[in-house]
Amino acid sequence: MEPRNEEPFDREPWRRLLEADSGAPTQDMDRRILAEARRALVPRVGRWWLPASLAASLLLAVLLVQWQLADSGAPAHVTESDVLSAPARIAADEAAPAAATEALPQRQELPATRAADMPLPEVAPPTMESRRMPETATPAAPPAAAASLPVAQEPAPAQAESSAVLGKFHALTPSSSEPRTAEQWYADIQALRATGRIKEADAELVRLKAAYPGWLESHQLQNP
Amino acid sequence: MEERDADAQLMLRYVAGDARAFEELYERNRTGLWRFIRRLVRDAAATDDVFQECWSRVIGSRERYRPTARFTTWLYRIAHNCCMDHWRKSGRRAAHETTDDDAIAAAADSPASGPFAIAVADEARGRLTLALARLPEDQRVAFLLYAEGGLSVAEIAEQTGTGAETAKSRLRYAVARLKEALGNDAPVD
């Protein structure tokens, strides 16, 4: 290399003399530096990881708050009443298929349009007592009373006459919160019979006999 | 000049993501840079630290590298800055306050310039090492930047914060002292 114009002396002879001196970095030093150089080429995760994780956390927090606010109107947990009413619901669900099987022949006898005129389910809504002790249901509630459950749940055709009779019949029935006694049931049957619904009255009478065996005979003996 | 351009090309390839290019670049410059730092720092442990710090800065500032100057110019400027940082951190006196006695004592500590090493090694090389250690710091810096780093007088002046004439004067004084020390083994201009 030719010395530059500004250069005070030729550097190459001095460079060769300097290079003759032994000495070099250790191999361990070489490995460290080369490893650092390779690491530097790897894209840094932290450049996008931190803001991305912060954004995800913020979004999750907002969604959780919104979800909590949306659910604040509905009970977020099982209440005591839910627990207490569960046995009554289970009992009703278990009784319904059996009663439906019993009631099937009677329903087949009745015309489809008349099925809606059947009395409302005699199963009283579970009171607090019955909820707490479902296994000790009052004997006044006839087992077959549940048979009318599916019938009553069917959609009723709009018939003015039937509705009027049904309304009257309901007026005759005691409060739905109390189980109907044999006397009340018999009175309802008599009311049906008085309105000319003989077949329905007969069907109810059959049920009454099944629910209260021997009661009708003793009643007729007492009231000839 | 072609070799220096080759260094710049290697650096650009490394900036583009070629790790092998850095390995080659490092291999081409490792011994020269290490010797340069050792002659300035004159402490074996500190030489390793400064050497590693220098390459760390090269790696860290690779995105800012522009091949407007020779790569070695850029590299030895970084190395000189690292040496000055080392002097500041170690609380050493400023370079212009260094006496010949300090330099000689430090040179005697160097494994390559100890009495035994000098006796068995090449005589001219040993005398050069000793003569370099005896140079005042500013002259030694100027000489090493010029001879080993390949910097021009103007670049040395800029790097050392002096004028071009001062840099040139330091170089002339340094060469004169080295020639005196080496005698007949001194390079002929």
Give a description of the structure.
The complex is a heterodimer of chains A (224) and B (189). With 224 residues, chain A is mainly α. Chain A has a domain of 140 residues. Chain A contains 10 helices and no strands. The longest helix of chain A has 30 residues. The radius of gyration of chain A is 45 Å and the shape is rod-shaped. By secondary structure, chain B is mainly alpha-helical. Chain B has 2 domains: 92 residues, RNA polymerase sigma factor, region 2, helix turn helix motif (Rna Polymerase Sigma Factor, Chain: A, Orthogonal Bundle), CATH 1.10.1740; 97 residues, Arc Repressor Mutant, subunit A (Orthogonal Bundle), CATH 1.10.10. Chain B is 74% helix and 0% strand. About 13% of the residues of chain B have low confidence. The chains are: A mainly alpha (224), B mainly alpha (189). The interface between A and B is large, with 32 and 46 residues.
CATH class of the largest domain in chain B: Mainly Alpha
CATH topology category name of the largest domain in chain B: Arc Repressor Mutant, subunit A
Structural domain count of chain B? 2
CATH architecture assignment of the largest domain in chain B: Orthogonal Bundle
Structural class of chain B: mainly alpha
Q: What is the terminal-to-terminal distance of chain A?
A: 145 Å
How many individual β-strands of chain A? 0
Measured by DSSP, the beta-strand proportion of chain A falls in under 5%
Number of H/I helices of chain B: 10
From the spread of the alpha carbons, the general shape of chain B counts as globular
- Which series of helices and strands of chain B comes N to C? HHHHHHHHHH
Order of helices and strands of chain A: HHHHHHHHHH
How far is the first residue's CA from the last residue's CA of chain B? 20 Å
Biggest sheet overview of chain A: none
- Average the pLDDT over all residues of chain B and give the rounded result: 82
Helix content of chain A: 55-70%
Beta-strand residue fraction of chain B: under 5%
Superfamily (CATH H level) name of the largest domain in chain B: Winged helix-like DNA-binding domain superfamily/Winged helix DNA-binding domain
- Biggest interface and its residues per chain? A-B, 32 and 46 residues
Radius of gyration of chain B: 17 Å
Q: Tell me, what's the shape of chain A?
A: rod-shaped
